[in-house]
Amino acid sequence: MTSERELQRGVLEELEWEPAVNAGHIGVAVTDGVVTLTGNVESYIEKAAAERAAKRVSGVRVVANDLEVRLPAPLQRNDTEIGRAVSDALAWDVRVLHDKIKARVANGAVTLEGTVPLQYQRAAAESAVRRLTGIKAVYNLIGIEPTVAPSEVKSRIEAAFRRSAEIDAGNIRVDVIDSKVVLRGDVRSWTEREQAERAAWSAPGVRDVEDQLKVKV
To answer: Do domains 4-69 and 73-144 have the same CATH topology?
Structure first.
């Protein structure tokens, strides 16, 4: 079993390894498999990259990302400038149903709203804006339109798990209530947990995924 000190060292090393992160400004604390990141980063995309790096480390159960985005002067933009950039980014990305999505900007934080048929379209909208200069946070409130029966959603997700080489389908239980998917069981790593959640979101009509999967360490 990995000790808290070993886990902390592993996360610090992974942050150092990640080229998109300046690890010198990030602190790492570990308690019962929960990793807390503190400190300052220069962009929202760096904050997200630090979280992804921490999740890659074996033994990490949860990541609490308390990093604060402090933009250097050359990267600072006012809300009007950010709003124009967000509008253009959504309009120019072929994956985004921009006519179904509205965006609001306040103090550098972008909020996305609306409804789309599929999760990947919801994720694409966030992806289109999260790398823009001047953004401090992105809140994705885009909903998913239900399109198929719950029983069909369940069977499609279970079939996707069986096809995946990265997911042990036998240890995961899938329940569907209306358009909400609940995942229960044990997985071998945070990566497997994310793969299972991503597969669940890929089913048409899924509006919410409650991930109760536990990472065995």
So the answer is: yes
Q: Quote the tokens at residue 108.
A: 């550098």
| pLDDT of res. 45 | 93
Question: How confident is the model at residue 217, as a pLDDT?
Answer: 65
Please report the sign of the dihedral spanned by the C-alpha atoms of residue 166, residue 172, residue 174, residue 180. Answer: negative
Please state which CATH number belongs to domain 4-69: 3.30.1340.30
Closest to 133 in 3D by CA, of 195, 95, 83: 83
- Nearest-Å Rg of the Cα atoms of the chain is 19
How do residues 2-44 score in pLDDT, each as one tens digit?
Answer: 788 999 999 999 999 999 999 999 999 999 889 999 999 999 9
User: What does CATH list as the number for 150-215?
Assistant: 3.30.1340.30
At 79, list the tokens.
């809300």
Question: Which of helix, strand or coil describes residue 155?
Answer: helix
Q: What does the pLDDT read at residue 174? A: 93
Low-confidence stretches of the chain (pLDDT beneath 50): none
We find that the CATH architecture of domain 73-144 is 2-Layer Sandwich (3.30)
Q: Which residues contact 93 (CB under 8 A, 6 or more apart)?
A: 124, 125, 127, 128
Count CB atoms within 10 A of the CB of residue 157.
24
Q: Do the Cβ atoms of 121 and 94 come closer than 8 Å?
A: no
**CA atoms within 13 Å, Cβ hemisphere of 15:** 25
181's tokens: 């998917």
Strand partners, 39: 26
Is residue 51 within 8 Å of residue 37, measured between CB atoms?
Answer: yes
